[in-house]
UniProtKB/TrEMBL annotation:
Protein name (record): Replication factor A C-terminal domain-containing protein
InterPro entries attached to this UniProt entry: NA-bd_OB-fold (IPR012340)
Organism per entry: Heracleum sosnowskyi
């Protein structure tokens, strides 16, 4: 061991500080996320508000609703709604948004051996398991492709909101998800069953429950524009 190494010298200085031995380093440790059953999640106390938990669930049904998607401003990425068929973002000084981003917002009924809950899959979570972007056409009916989520098993991270505890709302928002293929295959669904990717462009890869990357708000149209710009910038030899 190099006793004159600068890191060792810095550590010796820290040890000489009177408050160093009293400092509680456990507060800097990452909080472990509990894995709970649905019955346990439905009966959580107020100390779980704004915390996250993990559960193993089966998706029984994708609930058919007119609220299966939402639009985002292409500048501030906040949710916006059409007014007389046109999109404006009041957060961006009523800026017109001719091409807002269309995102998934799916509600599913999920269960385990202890009970049932409703889970909302926002765009990132829906794209993780569907592998595709929400259709960009003007079709208002929920695409039938989302039915492929049914009768499959997933590990889901749920955010516990105040309404879940105080108002006993059993609708939870997912903040992470991945499929458990071993359990899914037991139901008779082929592991090689694929989604109809002709409806829209394939999304990026999934992400791990403990290390979520930032949401990529780029739409397929943006990617195509970037490619065109790069190709125009190339000089002919």
């Amino acid at each position: 061991m190099k006793y004159d190494y600068h890191d060792v010298a810095n550590l010796r200085k820290m040890l000489r500080q009177p408050m160093f031995a009293k400092y509680n380093f456990t507060t800097q440790a990452e909080e472990k996320i509990e894995t709970l059953s649905i019955a346990e999640i439905r009966n959580l106390g107020i100390n779980y508000i704004e915390k996250e938990v993990i559960c193993q669930i089966k998706v029984n049904t994708v609930l058919e609703t007119i609220y299966w998607n939402f639009y985002q401003c292409s500048s501030c990425y906040k949710e916006i709604e059409p007014v007389q068929g046109l999109f404006k973002c009041y957060r961006c000084a009523d800026r017109n948004v001719p091409h807002p981003y269309k995102n998934w917002k799916l509600s599913v009924e999920a269960e385990d051996n202890s009970g049932r809950i409703e889970i909302v899959l926002m765009d990132r979570e829906a794209r993780t398991i569907l592998g595709i972007y929400a259709p960009t056409n003007n079709e208002e009916n929920m695409p039938s492709i989302v039915k492929l989520l049914e009768n499959r098993y997933y590990t889901v991270k749920l955010e516990i909101k105040r309404s879940n505890i105080e108002q006993k709302s059993f609708t939870y928002v997912a903040t992470g998800i991945f499929e458990n293929p071993a359990q899914t295959n037991k139901t008779g669904i082929s592991e090689t069953q694929t989604l109809n990717e002709s409806a829209t462009e394939t999304s990026g890869s999934g992400y791990h429950l403990d290390d979520f990357s930032q949401l990529n708000f780029q739409s397929p149209d943006v990617k195509l524009k970037n490619k065109k710009k790069r190709s125009l910038g190339k000089k002919k030899k």
